[in-house]
Amino acid sequence: MTSFLNAEQQGLAQEIASLLTDRNETICVADGTTGGLISAALLSVPGASRYFAGGAVLYTRKSRVALAGVPAEVFENYQGTTVEMLAATAEALRQRLETAWCIAESGAAGPTAGRSGQAGRTSIAVTGPIRRSETIETGMDDRAANMVEFTTRSLRILRDAITAAGMPN
What we know:
Layout: H1 7-23, E1 27-31, H2 37-43, E2 52-57, H3 61-68, H4 83-97, E3 101-108, E4 121-127, E5 132-137, H5 143-165
Parallel strand pairs: 1-2, 1-3
Antiparallel strand pairs: 3-4, 4-5
Helix pairs in contact: 1-5
């Protein structure tokens, strides 16, 4: 079977789907520089409608406010993506879509640096029963390669957060 995902992404998506299904929980996604690849990975698993509530590619401040409902004040003096900003975005979208989990990712895929400093840098935030956030630096300026790597890292962080949360009561 042909897939647009690499083998690791396929495995992570399957694992996340199983975890969410076993927990009877839902998720939404705020893709940024991944351009929808996190959502696409989660939707590639048959039966995704049991756990995937929706998502958006929130590529600009305007879209974060309009689509996710993040208060505009969060972006005052915006100098680039931070984990705090992404946590606020993830929580706003999670509440808006009434899901147990949300993952948000945004940064600078390249080839040039964004406001956050350098190409190959992204921040990831997971909200839900537990919260996780991390900033990743790949050291690459290849846009497509960074998008793939950001997707893989986001899926790993999401899987690890869901696993760490344990089974709901």
